[in-house]
Amino acid sequence: MSAPDDTGARRANLREVAALAGVSVSTASRVLSGTYPIAEATRGRVVAAMRELGYSEARARRREATRTIGVIVPDVRSSLVSGVLGGIDAAAVEHGRISMIFPTEGDVDRERDIVRLVARQRELDAVVFVGGVYASADYADRLGDYATMLEEIDARLVMCARPGPIPADRALAAGYDNTGGAFAITSHLLSRGHTRVAWVGGVEEYSTTEGRIAGMRAALAAHGLDPAAVYTDPSPRRSRRSPAPDQAYAHTVALLREHPDVTAIVANSDFHALDVVRALTDAGLSVPEDMSVVGYDDDRVAQRLHPPLTTVHLPVFDLGWEAARLAVEKPLPGHAGSVVELGTHVVVRDSVAAPRR
What we know:
By secondary structure, this protein is α/β, with parallel strands linked by helices.
C-alpha cells in the first residue's frame, strides 16, 4: 500500500497506477516519460488512472525533492570502489544530483535491508550497486526483487562493475570487459613462456571471479594448452566477503607448497598482489626472477610496488560516471543505451619475466 505524504493523505505509486490502468509498470513508466511510442488507448487509460489516484501531483511533490542517487557498495576501502565513487559523484554533481553511499561490508542481508529502507523513504531517483555479484539463482531472484521495489517508486536499479545474473530488462548496467582483461593478462604471461599459472584471491561465488578465471582458461586454450592448468585459490577457506590480505598471503604459501611447478601468479587485485609478493619474499623468492606476478585494477599501489606491477587497467572513474549518467537519464532496461561496457587493457611494468624452470 502507498505511504502517506506529509499532510497525511494517501500517496499513490506507479505500480498502483499501472494496476488500475491494466498495464505493466514499464508501460506506465513509458507513458510518464513521454518519449516512447504508446497506443493512444493505452495512454488514455494510464492518464485516467493517474488522475483518479492523484498520481501526477504526488509525483511532482516527490520529484521536487528527489535529487539523490543512492550508491550501495560492499566496502568503501576498496580501491575499485573509491575510484568508481569519484566518477559517480562527479557525474551526479554535473547532473544536479548528490550521491549517498551505503556500505554493506559484503553482507547480503544488510544490502536487502538498505534497499527496503530506500524504497520506503521514496527519496531516490536511482540506486547504483557497485562491486561483485554472487553468481547464484537465489541472488538473481533477490536482484529481481530489488528492481521491483525500485520500480514502485519510479526509480531504476543500476549495476556498476557488477556482472550478474539479473536479466537485462530489469536493470541498467555500466560494466567492463572483465573476462577480456583476464584473457589479455594471461596471454601476456604466456607470451613470456609461462604455462603454469595460478589465480590467488577473490570470492569464489562472485561472478567477477568466475569471469576472470574463465578468461584465463580461454587464453590457455587459445594457446593450445590445457585450461585445467590454471590453479585457483588453493586455500580451503572461503569467505562471503572480499578476502583480506592475510588470506592472499596464506593462499600463496599454500600454493608454493602444493604446486611448486607454478611460475606465474595472477592476483585478484593489486591490493592482494602486495601480500602475494610479501609471501614470496618471505619464502626466499624474487619477483620476477623466481615468480612472475600480475594484478588487476591498476591501482596507485601497482606503481609503488617493488618491482612495479604489471596489471589490468580498469576505467573506474568512467565506470562511475556512466553508472550515474544511466541513473539520471533512465533509459528503459533492455533497450538501446541501457547497457554500457568499457574496455580494459594490460599495463606492462616490471613484475613479469621468462620462467627459470
